[in-house]
Write a structure and sequence with these properties.
Blueprint (H helix, E strand, L loop, with lengths): L2 H18 L7 E2 L2 H8 L12 E5 L8 E6 L13 E12 L4 H18 L14 E6 L3 E7 L7 E4 L2 E11 L1 H9 L2 H12 L13
Amino acid sequence: MSLLEDSWEQREEQIYPELFGGTGEGIYPLDASLFKNQFGIDDIDPRWLHYGVFKYAPTSDRSTWVYVTSGMSNSWESDKPEEYSGFGTEFILETNEENDWAINTLRSLVAFNILVSVGQYGDKPLVDYGDRIPMSIEPNISNLMVVKPNQFPESFDLISGKVDILQITGITPEELGYAKESSSEALANKLFESQGSFILKPDRLGVI
């Protein structure tokens, strides 16, 4: 197989089960309607439809559900290992309960990141640590924020290169204001001190 195929298989069949437990339910892929309805994009690269989200149920060691993207670290453009594989990132989102909105949230973020990568938003950089993204989740979350995982590895290595894990959590309007005045890192520290995790809880009260 090619480097792309080998690293793809390594990520989904070896690394993800080791990190998140079990085999998941299969991937929830991006589709053409997502790009058209949310972003107004009709002309899509067929490769984009191979990106998606896995859902991992609680395990004996973890009581939460974990949603994990797959595809951004695909080495589409290289047939030899690089320092970082593909975009060099994948997203995770952790919840207390099984939820479709978690899948849809990550699918939207992946689609956005793909469009950033092809210049749809000018020179805007790819989603990274500290980013605050307007996306509401009822009843209390107004924005998403990208943090370094505290209870999962910060990265993993594929044969095609390194991949950073970016955890997606949710913040309230008041917390957004605090992050703008201080920093996303300062808010992340407050969230972890208060909550003990970066689990995305739509109904949680703010820490500010």
